[in-house]
Structure formats: structure tokens, C-alpha cells
Amino acid sequence: MQYFLGVDGGGTGCRLRLSDASGRVLAEVSEGPANISTDLEGTLRNIIAGSQAALKAAGLPPSALERVSAGLGLAGVNISDSALWAGRLPFERARVVTDAWTSTRGALGESDGIVAAIGTGSVFASLRGGHYSQIGGWGFHLGDEGSGAVLGRMRLAATLRGVDGIAPLTPLGRATLADLGGAAALPGFAKDARPADYARLAPALFEDPDDPMAAAVLNTAAEDIAALIERLQEGSPLPVTWTGGLGLLWATRIGQRWPERAACGTALDGAMALAFSLREA
Amino acid sequence: MQYFLGVDGGGTGCRLRLSDASGRVLAEVSEGPANISTDLEGTLRNIIAGSQAALKAAGLPPSALERVSAGLGLAGVNISDSALWAGRLPFERARVVTDAWTSTRGALGESDGIVAAIGTGSVFASLRGGHYSQIGGWGFHLGDEGSGAVLGRMRLAATLRGVDGIAPLTPLGRATLADLGGAAALPGFAKDARPADYARLAPALFEDPDDPMAAAVLNTAAEDIAALIERLQEGSPLPVTWTGGLGLLWATRIGQRWPERAACGTALDGAMALAFSLREA
Predict the structure, then answer these.
(1) Among residues A104, A172, A251, B128, which one has the fewest Cβ atoms lying within 10 Å of its Cβ?
(2) ipTM
(3) Are the CB atoms for A116 and A241 separated by under 8 Å?
């Protein structure tokens, strides 16, 4: 009997799903963090502990690990490095990819398409004839176009341009100042703010999209997002699937520019699909 | 006999100059940091110690402090708070302003004008009929238009847009990747980089201004700078004085848009001018 394990690993925790060869789910468990780039040993430990917990929950002996094909989508993976340590995984077969790959595969299912994943950060990916491409996603300081963190920072910067008189200080700009304690408080906020702190400032832009400052920020970010999606379209249109905490807000605002398709599954579904791709011919 | 003291206080140290009523310099000394917002007590201690050292170097007794008019330009000053502690200074008369004010006054001398101070950070100020205005300077995350830190970050972000294929990957972009260890290394650099780390990446843009990526970054930053200067011009042209580590590079690139004037002094000169403004009528 062959078993299939999907691992959706992230910086705060990982989820694992075990199924039999027919796709019937035998167990689903959670474990601790799986960020390979910050803690390789801890990640390996958590993946092994989670796998054993899944076998136990399915009523299988630990030795069944030797009949498991595993698909792992992990945060912080550098694919070229993963070859060095993937041999330490206890599975019969394993394939390790980035969590962006499993999210994309989960969202698109069997179909070609583009995924715009926009939450606190952002990343853009396509599957085209089985070929995976990923662009954007360079992080808060250098990229993450249209993400909550970047939008929140743009909101504060635009407010200060209003204070300086080189852009209109709109009602949303004045509300921003009132909420954060005035212009003089903003550099201190920015000095300590993490991406999640900025991201909390982003939804207000969508709630008040006719405010001229909100409109300017959203239009700039929309063009950044559009450039990335157009790049992935490569001239031959694929439908776009919007995911992440801001995905639906962006879809409502600019989704009509491209054919659109709802997500058909999660990153854990994508990890399962990866595991099944290792099935013996 | 009246004495006049100028204090140019910064986060890494302060300089003090003592002169007599005729403007003759009696002593000039250095002391420790003077950042009011991070260490009020230490700043007061350093200013008092520096003042006493200046008197001693000039052959004057400590009691001469009571005949000193002092002009202080300090980093981290919030003018409304300074009223609360300025009374603890031992001088006959004292006035406390931001170091941006003394830099501006020093650069402009007696004349009206605009100062574009552009180094690792940036700030823009004007003196018009004795009235001081300051805009920009909101720090690396939210402003500091055209500064070394912001230019360095723009260089990395533009390089990654080149990698993603939404902008040209130019010779300077390829050199950026080679210098920093490839695209995958850039998010890690950005995660830990301080403004000074980014600022080291800025001069290369000016050295290779015909590279299309460098040109695009410099043109964007130039328009940001121009908007701030035009705002301070208020429609009636004042000459622009360029200061800071990148001031001359920017002056060469865009200085011809406005009348230009060389800096006529330093922040310490500005602090002395402030001290003399307290002279008894």
C-alpha cells in the first residue's frame, strides 16, 4: 500500500495531510514552524514529528513512512540548497518546492493560469503547460507590489506629501494624521513598523477609494500589479486567480482587465498534488 | 563683556565655538553626542561640559557662562518640548532650534534662499524674509527624496524589476547583481540594511548616468526633488544652495533649473548667527 503526504510549511506552523492512493484523506495534523532558511534542523524535526503524528492518527505504524511519497511546499526554500538536505527526509520519495509553488498549484488545480497572491506581501506566479514561473515577491523593502504593507507605507508617505504641500492633503490624509498622532509621530512609527503594522493601514484605502489620495495610491499600485500580470500573460491570455487577504479587493478593483477564475484549492491541496505526481508509473 | 556661543549638536558629537561681541573667535571645541530625543540628560551634560571647556580654552573663568548668549542647533529637537528643559541651560540667554535650521542659516548667511541638503537622508528648507520653512526630511521609509539611502534602495528595486522582465536589465543592473551575490541575495540584504548601507549604492548611479536603469532612477528622484524645491519657491524664485554628500552631484545634474548659490558657511556658523541674534539691543 502506498501513502501520499502533503506538507504546507510556513514560518508560523505547518499543516500535513495523509491520503491513500485513491486520494481518500486518512489524517490531517498541524505542527510547528517550517522555515528552512531560519531553522533547518527545527524544520526537519517538525516535518518528521508531523508525519509520524499523521500516521498514528490514521492508525498506521511508524514504519509506513517508508511507503510515503511526500510533496513539501516550504517557506524560505532555496531549491538549489534543498538538494543538500532533502536526503535527510525519511520518506520513500520526496519533492521540495517553495510554498509559492504549492499555493499556485492549489489555487489553479490542473489548469494553466496566473495567481496573484496579495496579502501583507505579494507574489505573482503562472503555470503554463506545467511550467511554473514566479515574479515579484522580493519583500517589503524592494518589491511586494500592491501588498498591504506597501500600500500602508504609500498611505503614510502620501499623507506627508500632503503635509508638505506637494500633494493634496485629503480627508483620508487628515484622518491618517489624527489616527497616528500627527505628522511628527510618523517617522517614529515607520522606524519600528513591521510589514504587518503597515498592512493594517491598507484596507482604509479600499474603503474610501474616491478620496483623491486613496485613488492616487491605488492607481499607482494597480499599475504595478498590472505590469507583473501582463508580464506573466506573455501575450497569450491566461485567467487570473486572486488569493490572499487583499486578493478579493484588488479583483473587484482591477480584475475585469483579465479573464478571472476562482481559486480551486489551498496550498495543502497543491502539496498533495505534488505528492501524487511522485506516484510510481 | 558679552560672549557668544554657537553649538552644532548631532547624534555622534557636537562642536562649540565661542566668540566675543566683535565676532572674534576665542575658542572652538568638540564634545560628545547631543541628541535630545534619545538622551536629554547626556546632551545637557555634554553642552555644559563643552561650554566650560571653551571658556577655559579662551582663558575665561567658569563664571563667564553668565555672560554668554548661546545659539544651539540640536538633532532630535522638538521645539515645543525644548521650552521645558531649555531653562536648565546655564547661559544668560539661549535659543534652541533644530540642526536643520542652523545648517540652513549657515549655508545661506544673511540672504534669503533655499537649501537642498542631500546626503544619506535629505531635507529641504528656505529662509524668506527671516521666515524659516522646512519640508521633506521624513526619514528613509516615508520620504528623504533623492537621498543616498533612497537612491540605493531604488537601484536594488529597479534591478529586481529587470530580473522579473518588467523593465530592462541594464549593464548597471547586471553589475548590481554581481556585486551583491545575485537576485536571491537581495531580500536578505534589504532585511538588514540600514540607510548608510543603501547609501553606499547610490554614487554608482551618477557615475553611469546613461545606463537606462540609472537614468530612470535619477529622473524619478530628480522630479521628487524638483517638486519640493518648487514648493519652497512659492512662485517667487530664490537661489538654491546644495549641501550634503550628494548635493554637488544633484547640483550638476539638475541645478541649472534654478538660480544657484554656493554655501557660505556651516551649521556652526548658523549657530553663531543665532547666538548673535540674541545680542542686547
Answers:
(1) B128
(2) 0.84
(3) yes
Residue, of A263 and B80, whose pLDDT is higher: A263
Residues in chain B: 281
Return residues 58-117 of B near A (CB < 8 Å). Answer: 78
**CA–CA distances in Å: residue B124 to residues A238, B142, B150:** 47, 15, 15
Which member of A164, A187, A227 has the closest CB to residue B139? A187
What grid cell was written down for B167?
A: 523593465
Q: What is the pLDDT of residues A233-243, one digit of tens each?
A: 987 789 999 99
Domains of chain A: 3-109+264-276 (3.30.420.40), 148-257 (3.30.420.40)
Distance (Å) of CA B80 to CA A184, B125, B250, B278: 12, 19, 34, 19
Query: Quick check: B143 and A157 CB within 8 A?
Result: yes
pLDDT tens-digit map of B200-252: 999 999 999 899 999 999 999 999 999 999 999 987 789 999 998 899 999 99
Euclidean distance between CA atoms A263 and A243, whole angstroms:
7
Helix crossing, B171-180 with B148-164: angle to 10°? 100
Of B136, B164, B183, the CB nearest to A231: B164
Q: Which of A142, A157, A191 sits opposite B157 (nearest CB)?
A: A142
